[in-house]
Amino acid sequence: MGSKIRMLAHALCIACALPLACAHAQPTRNLHPGPLPAEFRGCDAAGSCHFVFETSVLPAVPPHRVRPDGVPHGAPDDIVAIAVRDRLNALMSSMIHQHKRIVLHDLRALGDGSLAARITVNEADVARDPVLLELGQRVAGTGQ
Question: CA-CA 20 to 30 A from 15: which of 95, 133, 137, 141?
Answer without folding.
Answer: 95
